Amino acid sequence: MTNKRMVSLSIWLYRQFLVVYPAEFRQAYGAEMTQVFATQCRYITNGKNWLRLWMATLVDLLTNSTEEVLMTNDGKFRSSMKTGILFGLVAGIFGSVNAITSAALVGKTGEEVISYIVLLSIAALSFASGVIVARRSKQPSTGLWVGLLIGVVASLIATTTRVGYSIAFYNILRNDPSEIRDWIHRGSTTFVDYLIADRIGGFINTTLLLGFMCGVCSTVGGLIGKVQNNVHALENRQDLS
Question: At 46, is the secondary structure helix, strand, or coil?
Answer without folding.
Answer: coil
